[in-house]
Amino acid sequence: MDVPLFLIFAAIAVACGVNVVVQRHPITSAISLIGVMGSLAALYLLLGGEFIAAVQVVVYAGAIMVLFVFVIMLLNAGAEGRSGRSWPVRLLGIPFLVLLLGLLSFVVQAYAPKTDRVVFGAFTSGGPRDIGKLLFTEYLLPFELTSVLILIAIAGAVVLARKEID
Amino acid sequence: MDFFVLSVLKALVVAGALMTSLAYLQWVERKVIAHIQLRLGPYRVGPHGLLQPLADVIKLATKEGIVPSHVNKPFYLLAPFLAVSLALTSIAVIPFGPEIEAFGVRTYMQLTDINIGVLFLLAISSLSVYAVTFAGWASNNKYSLLGGLRAAAQMISYELPLAIALAGPLLIAGSLSLREIVEAQQGVTLGILPRWMIFQPPAPQIFGFVIFLIAAFAETNRVPFDLPEAENELVAGFHTEYSSLKFASFFMAEYANMITMTAITTTLFLGGWLPLFPAEYGSNFVPSILFALLAAAALYHGLHPARRKDRFSLPVVALLLAAAAALFLIPIVQTFLLPLFWFLAKAGALMFLFIWVRGTMPRFRYDQLMSFAWKFMFPAAAVNLFASALLVALFAR
């Protein structure tokens, strides 16, 4: 049951990912991205990471993408026009793409560590209790540093967005 | 029994009950608002307008479904579907009662108990923003767009205090499973109060409860936070361009969200299916006594009728109420009717509060709405969370 589900959700994730690039209207791209997030959450769930799956939906699909959609709607961004391609792009685009993909797959094959195959259901410590314990003991410093980083980003956004008062 | 068959049966029961209560919640709301405003409300279809929901459903289903020519069709059609499906999903993790045994089958009075239940609810509620936003945008109408944008901003803002207020009970219960949270509220505190989260030492969540309730009003787009559909400024807000069943979907979604929110509040703060006081003090007889009193009142008014037809109708009502009172005394039925009674009593009281507020409060102005969320609700929720965390760390376990 796990493998067919994995294949279905992986296919949806890849299809939505391609759709993000292919679509010409920003809203359609945004909803494709939400599709990617959702199917990733389903994949996490299949691997036993319930907490990560829920957080993926709450944070990425539910908060960040809502802001994306909000901004797109507020700016009323329309469909993008397709610009004509220059002749080097038309001539060399596909050969270079094939070359790049071949190179990438070669590098991955050659240098990626040879790990065991993933077994569905083998990972059981993905609950909120385990993750909370790890975050506040073993990974406390990276966790706190990340939150400081986010705080700096928020402060920066506020400074940039503040109107100049003379 | 087979797990699959059992699940399908439970899903059918819950779905049927939810759909019926959706329809009748709307009748109750119209009646209560009418009485608040010294009117009678629905009265024509059936006795006291009791068949009005049925008539409304038939009317909405048989109306012509118009798709305006200027809309973005895929998104326009996706939005109501998204609204209603997300709104109906969350009921799956709400526990209505403890583990029961009937006809040789042991099962929980809950569709499914997942160990991230609370997070699941948050995920669903955070996704339901899209329905309203897409509806507003795809309608290609400035009023709809304004409504959709307002909804997005409002729901993101109020999700924050909602989630923070909800962390208090989680801290005390030490679990994310809704069933375990209810089980952590068993017993009595201070000799008289139930150990519900709003009273439970070491950190009573009364403030958390109030903050959660206010945020829940905003999340369900109810008065005084119904800015997305403020009819005197935005025609009908995000659903201006919708008609027939597509409009009905938004309507259903609003009431389903209301039911879910009251159910979550009941589960997290008011002890879920647990009775007001323990069974040793006779809480098992409360529903019977209540129904018997109602039956007596109906019988009294039937014997001293104000109108001629009351002489026949009220004794029948009295008989039905007496039958309900007797039903609650049968031991085998008691095991699953009593938890259900307490759960529905609490959720129903909260639902009445929702309607009551709608009948009494004026709408916020938009800037008031935002500054209330960020300058009052968010800090208050954060302070409540820090205080409860400190108390739990000092005194619990």
Count of distinct structural domains of chain B: 2
**Rg for CA atoms of chain A:** 21 Å
Largest pleated sheet of chain B: 2 strands, antiparallel
The dominant shape of chain B is globular
What is the C-alpha radius of gyration of chain B, as a whole number of Å?
22 Å
Word description of this protein:
The complex is a heterodimer of chains A (166) and B (397). With 166 residues, chain A is mostly helical. Helices cover 75% and strands 0% of the residues of chain A. Chain A has a single domain (2-78, 124-165), classed as NADH-ubiquinone/plastoquinone oxidoreductase chain 6, subunit NuoJ (Four Helix Bundle (Hemerythrin (Met), subunit A), Up-down Bundle), CATH 1.20.120.1200. By secondary structure, chain B is mainly alpha-helical. Chain B has two domains: 1-62; 65-274 and 330-395, no CATH class. Chain B is built from 13 helices and four strands. In chain B, a hairpin with a 2-residue loop joins strand 1 and strand 2 (105-109). The longest helix of chain B has 34 residues, at 3-36. Chain A binds chain B through residues 27, 31, 34, 50-51, 53-55, 57-58, 61-63, 66-67, 69-70, 73-74, 127-128, and chain B through 75, 114-116, 119-120, 122-123, 126-127, 129-130, 133, 136-137, 145, 148-149, 152-153, 155-156, 159, 176.
Detail the topology: elements first, then pairings.
The complex is a heterodimer of chains A (166) and B (397).
Chain A: H1 2-22, H2 26-47, H3 50-75, H4 87-111, H5 128-136, H6 140-161
Helix pairs in contact in A: 1-2, 2-3
Chain B: H1 3-36, H2 52-62, H3 73-89, E1 97-102, E2 105-109, H4 117-138, H5 142-173, H6 178-183, E3 188-189, E4 193-194, H7 206-219, H8 231-234, H9 244-269, H10 286-303, H11 310-327, H12 331-360, H13 366-395
Antiparallel strand pairs in B: 1-2, 3-4
